[in-house]
Design goal:
single chain; alpha+beta; Beta-Lactamase; Heat Shock Protein 90; 3 domains; five-stranded mixed beta sheet; rod-shaped
């Protein structure tokens, strides 16, 4: 499933990037406009001062009657300039321009025009031109200032602002990721509950979750309860069916001993064998029904106690042979399935081992990235060429040994239902037959 965190964080990063980008652009454009408007205002004041200092010489020429000039207008290529157009001809220019001129157009009285023009030594000039009327003639006064020094300071300021913005962006992303993780923490709790449910530690999911998730959790819990009830009813029905079949089976068994069938011994033997197989299966289902009835769904298994109890039962069944049935169970090993399935699986393997053992049987449970159940005996073992077929239903390698060839097949079927792998071989410790079931990790 896609992570909820990834799209949330991705959307947050993109949103913040757009916000910061727009904010950065607005700040830059706004400060740049404010700066140019401020400088243009100062240049317009200079133009007004120059206009107020205009006078006419006796020969009709225009001049500036100023006692003191700003020194910046006097230094060549200083970055501050003025130029006065008398109609369309240049009447006056600042000494700082030397012999160069500013690109400007005549303006009517009251008009003002601000533009960026090239100046001496490739300077970038902000030029403010204002139109006046002097002595009945149109006069245009332009004052310009070099923007490069101010632009350099502005660029340094924007670099600092950009650095601070990037730091704040990263901090906000980290903060928001933490907030999102905190908001999604209840979902991880649900995930942990699902894992605990799979391990059999709890029967239902906890409902301490956000309101948006609570309906889903309640639906899952309802579904779990329904499955548990149906499973219980199925087991009870199976037990009831098996119990109901015992009486007709007993009648058929007596009929198999009837004198009429004694005239057909082969038929009688076949009928008796099939009835015994049916009785064995019915007894097995009755045992499973009894076992299932006393267990709370989801309760964890006490493996050492369960395996030891099963071994004690087998010791009683085979007490005439005085078998030594030893148990080695790692208490840290967990089994995530049904108790009755485990007991029937282990019971069939133990029963098979007890039938063939001479004096010793060993059952062990260990954790090797998943539960490993091994049952060994000190009997004659199994020839390698027969290992591949002994788990088939009804296969018996020795007709003299009591049984119907179903034990290992049933055990293999149960193991397969859990995705477990069953292997057969020779016991390294006892020398006889060994059956090993490896369950996947939980």
């Amino acid at each position: 499933m896609r992570s909820l965190l990834a799209p949330l964080v991705t959307g947050l990063v993109l949103s913040l990037a757009v916000v910061f980008g727009v904010q950065w652009s607005v700040v830059r454009v706004t400060i740049d406009d404010v700066m140019k408007d401020y400088i243009a205002g100062e240049l317009a004041q200079d133009a007004d001062e120059l206009f107020s200092a205009l006078s006419l010489l006796p020969g009709g020429e225009t001049t500036l009657a100023m006692a003191h000039f700003d020194p910046v207008f006097l230094s060549p290529s200083s970055g501050r300039y003025y130029q006065i157009l008398d109609d369309r001809a240049i009447a006056l220019r600042s000494p700082s321009l030397v012999k160069q001129s500013l690109a400007m157009t005549p303006l009517d009285r009251g008009q003002r025009h601000v533009s960026l023009v090239a100046g001496p030594m490739d300077q970038a000039l902000l030029l403010s031109a204002t139109g006046y009327e002097f002595n009945g003639k149109r006069i245009t006064i332009a004052v310009a200032a070099d923007m490069k020094p101010i632009q350099s300071e502005f660029d340094r300021m924007m670099a600092r602002y950009t650095l601070v913005s990037v730091i704040m962006f990263v901090l906000l992303i980290g903060l928001q990721v933490g907030i999102v993780r905190l908001a999604l923490a209840p979902l991880r709790r649900v995930q942990d509950d699902v894992s605990r449910l799979d391990r059999g530690e709890i029967a239902q999911l906890g409902e301490r979750v956000p309101a948006e998730v609570l309906p889903l959790v309640r639906e899952v819990n309802w579904l779990l309860a329904q499955i548990a009830r149906r499973l219980q009813r199925s087991r009870e029905s199976l037990g009831n069916l098996a119990h109901a079949l015992k009486a007709p089976l007993t009648v058929l068994t007596h009929m198999a001993d009837d004198d009429h069938l004694q005239r057909h011994p082969v038929l009688g033997a076949q009928m008796a064998e099939q009835l015994e197989i049916m009785r064995s299966r019915i007894d097995s289902e009755l045992r499973r029904a009894r076992i299932a009835g006393g267990r709370v769904p989801g309760a964890p298994l006490d493996l050492p106690a369960e395996i030891e109890s099963l071994s004690a039962t087998l010791r009683k069944l085979y007490r005439d042979r005085k078998l030594d049935i030893a148990c080695r169970v790692d208490p840290e090993t967990k089994f995530g399935g049904d108790r009755e399935d485990l007991l029937e699986l282990c019971g069939n393997l133990l029963d098979n081992a007890c039938k063939w053992a001479q004096s010793r049987v060993l059952v062990s449970v260990r954790n090797e990235n998943g539960m490993v159940l091994a049952v060994e005996d000190d009997g004659p073992g199994c020839p390698p060429e027969d290992l591949s077929r002994i788990a088939r239903r009804g296969v018996r390698l020795d007709e003299e040994t009591q049984g119907h060839g179903l034990g290992l097949a049933i055990a293999n079927s149960i193991a397969s239902s859990y995705g477990a792998e069953m292997r057969f071989g020779r016991s390294q410790e006892l020398g006889g037959f060994e059956a090993t079931v490896t369950f996947p990790a939980i």
